[in-house]
Design a protein that fits this description.
142 residues, 6-stranded mixed barrel, alpha/beta, Barwin-like endoglucanases, single chain
């Protein structure tokens, strides 16, 4: 009986954790930068691939943002140059760099990541983003 109760509680806790990680999304803007992507503030000359981003002061958190992942979705245009820039897709990026003061966006996406969510001709778009936490589901036996 106790084993069953514990299993139910662990399952409920996992569901609450997943729900909490997707329930809150922040609003901001995204821009993009072009290769080369190294060196980076977080990893020097290590190649982190192309689904990466630089964090502005809004989320940099004195380097604590390094290696955080964010799910980013375009929500609309910031100018009249491209009134419908969004592709309807989202992208998950890893923070590997710092976008210094004067950064034009909340998150400065790699060119490839930006192109996944929006037309690069837009240059800057409104976004919704939240920290992405991958929760691996596993069978728990007590």
């Amino acid at each position: 009986m106790f084993k069953g109760f514990c299993l139910v509680m662990v399952t409920v806790a996992a569901v609450v954790l997943v729900a909490a990680s997707v329930a809150h999304a922040d609003q901001g803007t995204a821009t993009f930068y072009t290769p080369p992507y190294v060196p980076s503030s977080c990893h020097g000359y290590s190649n982190d691939g192309v689904m990466i981003a630089a964090a502005s002061d809004a989320i940099w958190d004195n380097r604590a943002a390094c290696d955080r992942k964010y799910k980013v979705t375009c929500t609309g245009a910031t100018n009249k140059g491209d009134p419908h820039p969004c592709t309807g897709k989202s992208v998950v990026v890893k923070i590997v760099d710092y976008c210094p003061p004067g950064c034009r966006g909340t998150i400065d996406l790699s060119q490839e990541a930006f192109a996944t969510i929006a037309n690069p001709d837009a240059g800057k778009v409104n976004i919704q983003f939240n920290q992405y936490v991958y929760v691996r589901q596993s069978n728990v036996s007590l």
